[in-house]
């Protein structure tokens, strides 16, 4: 991640540069926007380095270095205020000045107005090998014409083969314009590098064409949707080679070594010794976002002091050390950037001293990253949710968090001890980087495999999103959870899950498995319990709250107590969106005593049955199986990717309710 990348600084990406030149001449010019996406999709699915499908071709959002030229067209850059998350991002990226910025976007007053046309996510066309849909010509981008003449019809933007005469053998036909589509094969490696497939070298077995310096290639494909079924043909020397030769372990030996390319950065890593793997443009494992998120809670006094010190350090820079003993001068210099009107001199002096403290060394940063536990982000949230609100709809103005206490209904399960209605909340999500081929939490040699978003080793900012929504918080009885957990640890079912996790860990964490105890990465039984409870509640709530199941998300507070961190057992079911759609009130209404009783009762009853029973109810991993779930499937308790924070892992209905042949359920037997 800290290796210096090789790139050509003269090839900077600036989509609006030519538009501004034309504007100076008085010529109208299309601003060249080719598509759009919601902030949630751009951070979780189509972020920098991912491949985004447009109606006629595919693009790749560029690295954040190229976004700076977009922001430079504005007087100021907006900052998302979430100090707790920002500090974690700084630690993970080893950059002390990282700020959180939103996507460069501005809403339009009317559908045909021009606000925000100077903002957008810069992107590159990728892959840049295209195939003509009329004659199967396979060629790089410069061989095709680009058409995008309508400023409000981005769906019409496309590449065309200007003089397509049809496929060979179809008879003479007058040349006409034909749409070209991306050639769908790519090369990737486990360190996140991605490259075009070398079609020319492939069809000629690594040699030059014997008939032409620039051979004419075709991609012949008559069986779409069946993997690497195409045939690459050279019209110049009549060579042919099928793509299915590149599949599997045998095919991998025929592929070239990785060149270390990062197309989103237009750069190359100095060296890469990995073998490449054949990938398809639309493969689901081509891009996995590495993100962290928090629900913004009211800041403690300590957090406020740390935040003030950080703002002073960034606002004054070297001047802070020069005038550290002159508090009046510091107030004058920072007047426009930091509000110090209500900060007493004693607090200001402490903040200055804290801001001037030396930054941690690289060794200290590495040790902190290795020992950091993601649960640390959840602990402040859990501690605040344990406090009873001061009144109905108690609102913290700084964070926007609004809570209300709900009385427990007489028929509510006694294992649920507290209920809170989260009337309003703000969730901030930050993108740290991404991985390819395997998800972030399934690779053990991070941060080496975390692909950076910038060419610089110490980025100044990263992209983040703000979501607003509502939710329902449930807390379980800690004494009952602890007693139940002891019983689970002694069960054969838990032993089977632990063995399956060890097999899964050793297969996926092959490079680091020898240095890490897999049992330390296995979630405790209470996590399985609360995770399964969250999923069945998601399904039940979606039937009555007015939101779809894919719009609801889980926030799990489930960890055993350690020194300095008390145990937790609770869940927040929430819905969030980048606009007001996440605060319509339908979910909060389910926290009312009578409604919540019915929701919990219905969810637990449905958990006792599955259309795949008895197969689902008796599913337990045995050697050599390594799946990380038990009595759970898409028919009963699995959720969509947008709802589950663990990819439908660590689920088992047997830990929630008693199923035939099992008495491990926390809630015991459930009657209709």
Automatic annotation (TrEMBL):
The record's InterPro entries line, in alphabetical order, gives: DrmB (IPR047721), MZB (IPR018973)
Which parts of this chain are annotated as the region Disordered? 1-36
Q: Which Pfam families match?
A: MZB
Q: Which superkingdom is the protein from? A: Bacteria
Which positions fall inside the MrfA-like Zn-binding domain? Answer: 533-636
Looking up NCBIfam families in the UniProt record yields: DrmB_fam
What name does UniProt use for this protein? MrfA-like Zn-binding domain-containing protein
Q: What is the lineage of its organism?
A: Bacteria, Bacillati, Actinomycetota, Actinomycetes, Micrococcales
């Amino acid at each position: 991640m800290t290796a210096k990348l090789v790139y050509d600084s003269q090839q900077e990406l600036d989509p609006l540069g030519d538009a501004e030149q034309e504007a100076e001449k008085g010529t109208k010019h299309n601003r060249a926007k080719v598509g759009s996406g919601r902030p949630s999709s751009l951070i979780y699915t189509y972020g920098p380095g991912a491949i985004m499908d447009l109606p006629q071709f595919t693009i790749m959002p560029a690295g954040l270095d190229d976004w700076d030229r977009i922001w430079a067209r504005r007087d100021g850059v907006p900052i998302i205020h979430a100090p707790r998350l920002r500090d974690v991002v700084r630690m993970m990226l080893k950059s002390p000045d990282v700020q959180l910025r939103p996507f460069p976007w501005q809403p339009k007053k009317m559908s045909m107005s021009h606000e925000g046309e100077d903002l957008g996510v810069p992107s590159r066309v990728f892959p840049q090998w295209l195939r003509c849909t009329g004659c199967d010509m396979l060629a790089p981008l410069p061989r095709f014409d680009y058409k995008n003449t309508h400023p409000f019809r981005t769906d019409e933007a496309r590449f065309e083969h200007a003089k397509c005469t049809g496929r060979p053998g179809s008879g003479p036909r007058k040349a006409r314009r034909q749409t070209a589509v991306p050639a769908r094969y790519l090369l990737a490696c486990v360190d996140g590098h991605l490259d075009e497939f070398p079609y020319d070298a492939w069809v000629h077995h690594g040699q030059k064409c014997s008939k032409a310096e620039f051979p004419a290639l075709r991609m012949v494909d008559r069986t779409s949707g069946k993997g690497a079924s195409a045939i690459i043909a050279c019209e110049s020397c009549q060579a042919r080679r099928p793509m299915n030769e590149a599949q599997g372990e045998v095919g991998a030996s025929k592929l070239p070594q990785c060149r270390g390319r990062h197309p989103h950065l237009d750069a190359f890593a100095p060296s890469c010794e990995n073998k490449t793997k054949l990938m398809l443009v639309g493969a689901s494992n081509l891009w996995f976002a590495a993100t962290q998120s928090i629900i913004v809670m009211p800041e403690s006094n300590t957090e406020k002091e740390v935040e003030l010190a950080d703002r002073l350090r960034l606002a004054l820079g070297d001047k802070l050390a020069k005038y550290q003993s002159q508090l009046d001068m510091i107030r004058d210099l920072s007047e426009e950037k930091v509000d110090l009107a209500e900060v007493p001199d004693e607090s200001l002096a402490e903040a200055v001293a804290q801001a001037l403290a030396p930054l941690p060394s690289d060794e200290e940063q590495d040790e902190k990253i290795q020992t950091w536990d993601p649960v640390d982000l959840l602990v402040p949230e859990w501690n605040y949710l344990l406090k009873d609100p001061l009144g109905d709809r108690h609102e913290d103005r700084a964070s926007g968090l609004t809570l209300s206490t709900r009385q427990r209904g007489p028929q509510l399960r006694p294992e649920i001890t507290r209920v809170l209605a989260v009337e309003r909340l703000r969730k901030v999500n930050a993108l740290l980087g991404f991985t390819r081929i395997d998800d972030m939490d399934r690779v053990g040699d991070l941060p080496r495999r975390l692909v950076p978003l910038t060419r610089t080793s110490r980025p100044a900012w990263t992209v983040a999103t703000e979501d607003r929504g509502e939710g329902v918080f449930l807390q379980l009885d800690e004494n009952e959870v602890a007693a139940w957990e002891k019983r689970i640890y002694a069960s054969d079912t838990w032993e089977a899950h632990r063995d399956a996790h060890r097999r899964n860990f050793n297969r996926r964490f092959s490079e680091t498995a020898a240095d890490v105890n897999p049992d330390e990465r296995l979630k405790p039984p209470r996590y399985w319990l609360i995770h399964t409870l969250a999923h069945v509640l998601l399904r039940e709530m979606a039937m009555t709250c007015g939101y779809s199941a894919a719009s609801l998300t889980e926030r799990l507070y489930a960890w055993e107590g350690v020194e300095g961190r008390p145990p937790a057992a609770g869940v927040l079911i929430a819905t969030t969106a980048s606009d007001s759609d996440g605060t319509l009130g339908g979910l909060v209404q389910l926290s009312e005593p009578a409604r919540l009783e019915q929701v919990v009762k219905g969810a637990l009853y449905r958990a006792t049955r599955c259309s795949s029973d008895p197969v689902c109810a008796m599913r337990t991993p045995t050697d050599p199986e390594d799946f990380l779930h038990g009595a759970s499937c898409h028919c009963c308790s699995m959720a969509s990717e947008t709802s589950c924070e663990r990819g439908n892992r660590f689920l088992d209905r047997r830990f929630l309710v008693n199923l035939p042949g099992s008495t491990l359920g926390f809630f015991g037997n459930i009657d209709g």
